[in-house]
Known about the structure:
Elements: E1 28-36, E2 44-50, E3 56-61, E4 69-73, E5 97-104, E6 107-112, E7 115-121, E8 133-137, E9 150-159, H1 165-170, E10 183-185, E11 203-205, E12 209-211, E13 214-218, E14 223-226, E15 253-262, E16 265-273, E17 280-285, E18 292-298, E19 311-320, E20 323-331, E21 340-347, E22 354-355, E23 376-384, E24 389-396, E25 404-410, E26 417-422, E27 431-435, E28 438-442, E29 447-450, E30 471-478, E31 483-490, E32 505-507, E33 511-515, E34 521-525, H2 527-531, E35 535-539, E36 553-555, E37 558-561, E38 564-568, E39 574-582, E40 587-594, E41 601-606, E42 613-620, E43 623-630, E44 637-644, E45 647-652, E46 656-661, E47 669-675, E48 679-688
Antiparallel strand pairs: 1-5, 1-9, 2-3, 2-8, 3-4, 5-6, 6-7, 8-14, 9-10, 9-13, 11-14, 12-13, 15-16, 16-17, 17-18, 19-20, 20-21, 21-22, 23-24, 24-25, 25-26, 27-28, 28-29, 30-31, 31-32, 31-33, 33-34, 35-48, 36-37, 37-48, 38-47, 39-44, 39-48, 40-41, 40-47, 41-42, 42-43, 44-45, 45-46
Amino acid sequence: MRIVTLILGVTLMADSASYAALPPLTDRTLVAWVTVADLNSRGGSVLTIDDRQTHFDGIIFGELSPAKWMAGSDLYRRTSQQQGDWPTETAGPQTLVQIAIAYEGRTITVYRDGELYSRHEVAEAQAFPPSSAAVFGLRHIGAGQPCYFAGSIEEARIYAVPLTQEQIRALKVNTPSDPPPVAWWDFEDGATTDKMGAFPEGRLGGNAEIRDGRLHLGGDGSFMVTPANALLLPPADVPEWPSPVHYRPSRGVFADPIPFFWQGEYHVFYLQGGIGKVPWKHIASTDLIHWRELPDALVSDGDPNGPDGEHMFTGSVTEKDGTFHAFYTGWNPRNPAGQECVMHATSPDLITWTKHPEAVVRPDGAIYKNHQAANWRDPYVFYNQEEQQWWMVMCSDTLQGEGGVGLLTSPDLWHWKHEPPLQADMQECPDLFRIGDTWYLIGGDHYSSSKSARGPYVRPAGYDVIDRPGVYAGKRQFDGTRHVWTGWAWDIPGRRDGEAGTWGGSQCVPRELYPAPEGRLYCKPVAEAVNVFGKTVLDLARKPLIAGGGGWRFEGDTLVGSPSVCSFEVPAHYLLEAEMRLEPRARFTVVIRQHENAEGYRLSLDTAAPGPDASATLSGPGFTYERKWPYGPDRPVKLQVFVQGTLIEAFINDAVAMTCRAYDLQTGKLGFEVSGGTAKVTALRVSEE
């Protein structure tokens, strides 16, 4: 699992039309003139370019090695971690230092005051789109403590070409250059203005201030970002809501579930983010609703530079001959043998675990790359009945390509043979299982299917996600009847749920996965979650008062709407269940937490497209998600929408799920809108716990 995750899946709009002036950036140079106020600060950025999705590159100070500059990047993909012979920064807070990083193809070169500081090659160059953000102080969007730079920035520039050493030496403060930069901040007149007009006005956070022609950053929460909405402002007041169907720890966040069903109990090991070194936490439930918290399963220990010296990342749990086996990722960028190693622990009772560092599994260097920063994580281990041996699949780097789903086999869980990778796209947090004669490979982002365990795996067109981008890194456990899947619903950095804007969030409503035609996996909420809501507050049979009913009317026990709007008073937190019939070409919209100015979170079902698939859109302030869903004019449409605190989870026709965060609006009416045709609502129930 990645340690750095940004605001994934949230579509943020630029603040001004001039923002489109930023060109796509592949080859480029980042330059800044800075003073360092605290040589002991760790991991802050002077200047970062961030695509606001997954990737960032920045001038970072002291992250891996104290008082050393480096080219920071997501998951260190473009970062050299061999920094032992790099010069240590000694300049005090009164000394202005120029730092420049040139990106040319796969070569990244760092210069300090025009002199070569470091140079290294990367596996793959990274391009940044015109919608990218620029971040100062904070390492990247979504980073938390202690990722802030302490010092001042006299000037910062971005060039759309890799400058040579001579060109970098020739750069002068407050002086134009040839070639000109595509973005240039000189911080004169107390403004966040980009002199080249590529970025709109920015926003200051924490105790950051612009004075005397410099951006001053005090560390500990100080930053500047442009565009201003790239880091969303917290609402004035978002009260915590103890949702009855969303588990989250009292401290930190819930991330990367590792589920395991055993003797009538659902166990979920998970990564606890936002607390420092990441452990494996452990919860268990007999009903998927009430979770008891058990002792930590795996924690950081041992050699600080070894595989267990930093984070306990994703893996899996299985059982053999009465012994439980956990395979996990030991993630430590200081480990010279590789920042990612597959580790092994055993337990007699799922509670007390013994690590076996002698059983570490590493890439072989023949099929899988074994360089220090290679992908080698997230092992999923299960017994393959077809082949009568244990399988381990994982996120890996192959010698034939950059990424793949690695495969190892074993007769006993202790001795592993490296096999060619599956014929499938690389996925974080893989989960591989069979239903009937079809194999399904689920990852952090999408899923695919195959008739053979080794592939090739193909994504079902238009239906290759379970719930994305609202939920990430989901896995399932089989309870003898159902495949129960759960993942984590994102906290949005800078809002109210998370601590320090880290990756992770709340456990989503558990879902039952089941197969559908064309290699699809459909999902629906488990019955246990629906049954929590037993108090009815709105029922169609009661002929509820319609506010602003327009063309809506009752025909017997059916609520009929032709192009018009109606709304109902509902609680702040509830479960909506509805059935309806939609004419072809109708667009039916549920407005959640509707306000007088038509604000609200909008779930729209659009049947305009011909064929068996319709489109669904879930939108709100700053985001829009789209999905397909199975539609037939001769059958009813079923909706279930959990509205709980800052989470909205919608299920359409027991097939498709869509999840979003709901920070901006905490209360409001329930609205229905229809256009293009007629909608007949035959069942409607709003209920509370």
